[in-house]
Design a protein that fits this description.
The structure is a homodimer.
Chain A lengths: L3 E4 L5 H10 L4 E4 L4 H7 L1 E5 L4 E3 L3 E3 L10 E4 L9 H6 L7 E4 L8 H7 L4 E14 L2 E14 L8 H12 L4 E3 L3 H21 L4 H4 L3 H20 L8 H11 L6 H7 L6 H14 L5 H20 L7 E3 L1
Parallel strand pairs in A: 1-2, 1-6, 2-5, 3-9, 6-7, 7-8, 9-10
Antiparallel strand pairs in A: 3-4, 8-9, 8-11
Helix pairs in contact in A: 6-8, 6-10, 6-12, 8-9, 11-12
C-alpha cells in the first residue's frame, strides 16, 4: 500500500485523503488554518459515499515535517502555486510521484518545475464538495477522478494504474487515462462556462439554467471551449456539448468553487481556468472572443474585489 | 416660441425642460412619483450650466390633461415605452412633432407607431445628470444633444433647425443632424460598452478605466460596436474608437444610468441598448459575439434581479 501526502486538505484533498486513510493507507495531510481543530477533533467528512470521521489524523502545519511519500496529491488552489517549491520538498524527498488535482489547463507546470515532468501526473475531479467548517467537509455529489501522466505519449503508466486501483479500493471512482489534455479540455467546457458565468451573473448553476438567456449564454461558451480545444488539436466528441448542458441542468443547485471564492473575497483561479486555455487557443490561431471577454471580466472583478475586501477564511469548495 | 411637452421629467427631461422654461418657453412637464413634490416645491436643477429653481411649474400627473404642444420630448426609459400610446395622445393632439431622446437603437419606432414616422425625430444626449431627490436634478457634466429626423433621407428639416435654435437660445448645445443613425451608433459605442460593463463588472467608469484589464475589455467592445455599425452601413471614423476610450478616462467618476437602474432594482434598458443593435448587426451578417454575450449576461442579471428585489423609487440618472 502506497503512502500518500495531501497538500491542501480542503473540500477536495480532505475528501480523497480521508477515503484513502479509511481504506488503510498511511496518509499525511497538510492543513493551514484548520490544523489545530483537526488535531483536537479529527477530520469529518459527510459524504454521499457514506460519512467518515477520522479521529487520528497525520496532520501537519508545515510541509517540511512531512515524511517522504509515494504519491503527493496537490489539491491547493492554483493561486497558491508559488508556495509549491517549499510545500513539495518534504513529501517528494524520496523520489515519489506528484498528482496534481487542480482545475485549469497546464496547471501541472508549477509542480513539474519542482520535481520534473517525469514525476508529474495530473487529473480532473468531477466533484461537488464544500468545506462547511474547520476540518468538516460536505461532499454532495459526484466524485470521479480522471488522471494521467503529464508527459504526453507516456500512455497509461504502471504507477497511474496502481494509484487508480488504490483509489478504487478506497471507494473512489478513479480512471487512469492516456490523454490528460483531452480530460482537461473536457472539464474546461464546464469550468470556463459555469465558474465564469456564475461569478459574472451572480448566479448559482440552477439559476443560470433556469431561463432561456442563461441557457443560450452557457451554450455559446460551452461551444466556444469545444472549438478552442479542437484548434489546440484536442478533438472532443460533439455530443459533449449537449451533455455538459444537460448534466448541469440535472445537478444539485450548486455554487461553483469560483463563485464561493469570489463571494468570500478570496482570489479566483482566473489564470489557471481562463488565462492558460485562452492563451493556448490564441497561440493556435483561434480567437475565442467569448472566453477572452469572460477572462477579462473576471480579471476586473478579481482586482476590484481584492482591492476592496479583505480575504475571509470561512467556507471553501471544489469543482 | 414653440410650446414643449416633456414626457418623463427625470435627470434628462427635467434638465432640458427647465432650460427651455427658464428661457421663456411654455413647457408642460409630466411627472410620476415627484408630482406632488414639484407642485409644492418646484423643480430644482443644480447644473454646470448654472443652477435653476423653477417655482411655478406646469406639472401633470396624467398626460391626458396636457395641452397640445408643438414639440413633445420623450425622455422616459425605453422600458416604459408600452405606455406611449396613452402618454402621447394629449400633447400630440394638435399635430406637433415628437422628439425621442432615449438611449439605444431604433427607439423611435414606438413613438412613430403612435404619431407616424413623418412626425418623429430622434436624438442622443451626451450628458451626465442624476436625479438626486424628488424634483431635484444634479447635472454634473456635458449635455450636448444631437438629433434629427427619424425618416432617413429627410435631411435637416426646418423643424429640426428651429428646435435646435430654440435649445441653443436656452443655453443647451443642440445640433440638428441629417444622419440620426450615425449619431445613434456613435453613442452606442459608449453605451453598449460602459453601460454593460459597469453592470457586469460592478464598477464605475473610473474603476473600469483604472486598470489594464478593464481598458482592454472596454476597447474590445468599443471596437466591436464600431465594426457592427460598419456592417449596418454606418461608417464611423476610425479615431472614434480611441476618442471614446480617452473621453471616458477623463470623465468625472460616473455611475452609468444602467448601473444605477441595476443597483436600485429597476428594469434595465437591455433591449433598446443591446438587443436592437445586436439584431441589426446579425441581420447584416455580423456576428458580434461580445455584444451578444454582454446582452445575454444582462438579460440574466436583469431577470434574476427583478425576481429577487422589488423596484425602488429612489435616485435615477441619464446617459
Amino acid at each position: 500500500m502506497q503512502r500518500y501526502a495531501i497538500i491542501g486538505s480542503g473540500a477536495l484533498g480532505g475528501l480523497y485523503g480521508a477515503r484513502l486513510a479509511a481504506a488503510g493507507h498511511e496518509v499525511h495531510f497538510l492543513f493551514r488554518s484548520d490544523y489545530q481543530h483537526v488535531r483536537q477533533h479529527g477530520l469529518k467528512v459527510d459524504s454521499v459515499w457514506g460519512d467518515l470521521h477520522l479521529h487520528d489524523v497525520n496532520a501537519y502545519q508545515c510541509a517540511d515535517d512531512m515524511p517522504p511519500c509515494d504519491v503527493t496529491i496537490v489539491a491547493l488552489k492554483t493561486t497558491q502555486n508559488h508556495h509549491l517549491p517549499k510545500l513539495l520538498a518534504g513529501p517528494t524527498a524520496g523520489g515519489g510521484a506528484v498528482l496534481v488535482l487542480q482545475n485549469g489547463l497546464d496547471v501541472e507546470a508549477d509542480s513539474a518545475q519542482v520535481v520534473g515532468v517525469q514525476r508529474t501526473l495530473g487529473g480532473c475531479c468531477f466533484l461537488c464538495s464544500n468545506k462547511v467548517g474547520p476540518g468538516h467537509i460536505k461532499h454532495i455529489d459526484y466524485g470521479r477522478i480522471v488522471f494521467g501522466e503529464y508527459s504526453p505519449q507516456a500512455g497509461v503508466s504502471d504507477r497511474a494504474a496502481r494509484i487508480a486501483s488504490e483509489l478504487n479500493a478506497a471507494g473512489v471512482e478513479a480512471i487512469a487515462t492516456d490523454d490528460l489534455l483531452l480530460t482537461r479540455w473536457r472539464k474546461l467546457m464546464w469550468n470556463i462556462t459555469f465558474n465564469g458565468l456564475s461569478v459574472v451573473c451572480d448566479a448559482s448553476t440552477d439559476q443560470l439554467m433556469d431561463g432561456r438567456w442563461g441557457e443560450q449564454l452557457s451554450l455559446s461558451l460551452v461551444r466556444e471551449v469545444h472549438a478552442a480545444a479542437a484548434a489546440c488539436g484536442v478533438s472532443i466528441a460533439e455530443d459533449a456539448i449537449g451533455t455538459t448542458i444537460e448534466h448541469t441542468r440535472k445537478m444539485v443547485p450548486y455554487d461553483s468553487s469560483m463563485r464561493l471564492d469570489f463571494l468570500n473575497g478570496r482570489p479566483m483561479e482566473v489564470e489557471a481556468i481562463f488565462g492558460n486555455p485562452l492563451r493556448a487557443a490564441q497561440a493556435a490561431g483561434f480567437d475565442a472572443p467569448r472566453i477572452e471577454m469572460l477572462y477579462r471580466q473576471l480579471k476586473v472583478l478579481d482586482q476590484l474585489r481584492r482591492g476592496s475586501q479583505a480575504a475571509s477564511a470561512s467556507s471553501s469548495a471544489a469543482t
